[in-house]
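Here is the promised in-class demo. Please do not try to memorize the tokens; focus on the logic of going from shape to residues.
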């Protein structure tokens, strides 16, 4: 049986995929799964296809435009006998076009370097929403029926929220084994068309409802961003659709009004947290 399955969704330049795959150490205990999204079905769809094929004890996700550092081989040796449901590791980041240092990994750097273990665990569970920089037990994923949303944007937020909510144990290592490549044309940055705004609303609302159901004190205030974006651009029909998506996710009207009242405070807390973590792209 393989120890590790590395899943790489791909829809982009071949050289980026080649670099990513070449950065994976050649080991007998590593399975590399590349899912080509030729029809544009989304990274969530591709990652789910990868999960269907994974045979490793742990699964690790990588984006095809990112890559692993050479220390990743040593890190795999370090964790090969681990039993935690989730194992986090660190990253650095560069701008894809220039290879200059980027801000994209600052939040994971800030979290993993915290000397407060309770704060670090909470933020790794509920605030770090990207699927990379973690090895997740396949038995844990299957036992809890955890899958990615097959949306065009934020397909990972509900997945990582479930992982954080259900994991019985996690560990965090400071090893910087992964490089996140920031690119200006990434899918996550194209949020203004109707489908992406509605997907953004639905996926954050689903994650919030998960937290409410399991009595977790976490709420993504950014759920309201698409509705406000649509409203302030005079797209009132789209704003109403965003509101309906939140209602369909399980919010009552009174609950939505409550969170709307809290929104300025939550937004300020988000600004403070992101500023401390150096997440703003100056």
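The designed amino acids, position by position:
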């Amino acid at each position: 049986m393989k120890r590790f399955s590395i899943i790489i969704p791909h829809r982009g330049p071949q050289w980026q995929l080649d670099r990513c795959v070449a950065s994976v150490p050649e080991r007998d205990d590593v399975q590399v799964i590349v899912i080509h999204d030729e029809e544009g079905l989304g990274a969530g769809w591709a990652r789910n296809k990868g999960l269907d094929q994974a045979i490793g004890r742990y699964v690790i996700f990588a984006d095809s435009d990112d890559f692993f550092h050479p220390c990743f081989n040593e890190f795999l040796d370090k964790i090969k006998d681990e039993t935690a449901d989730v194992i986090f590791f660190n990253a650095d980041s560069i701008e894809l076009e220039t290879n200059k240092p980027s801000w994209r990994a600052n939040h994971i750097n800030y979290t993993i370097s915290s000397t407060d273990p309770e704060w670090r665990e909470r933020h790794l569970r509920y605030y770090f929403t990207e699927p990379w920089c973690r090895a997740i037990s396949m038995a844990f994923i299957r036992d809890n029926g955890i899958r990615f949303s097959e949306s065009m944007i934020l397909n990972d937020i509900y997945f990582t929220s479930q992982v954080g909510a259900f994991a019985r144990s996690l560990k965090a290592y400071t090893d910087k084994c992964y490089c996140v490549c920031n690119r200006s044309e990434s899918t996550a940055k194209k949020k203004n068309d109707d489908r992406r705004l509605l997907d953004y609303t639905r996926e954050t609302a689903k994650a919030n409802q998960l937290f409410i159901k399991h009595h977790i004190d976490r709420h993504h205030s950014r759920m309201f961003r698409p509705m406000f974006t649509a409203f302030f651009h005079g797209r009132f029909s789209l704003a109403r659709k965003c509101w309906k998506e939140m209602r369909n996710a399980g919010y009552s009207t009174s609950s939505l009004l409550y969170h709307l009242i809290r929104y300025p405070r939550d937004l300020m807390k988000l600004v403070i947290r992101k500023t401390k973590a150096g997440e703003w792209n100056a």
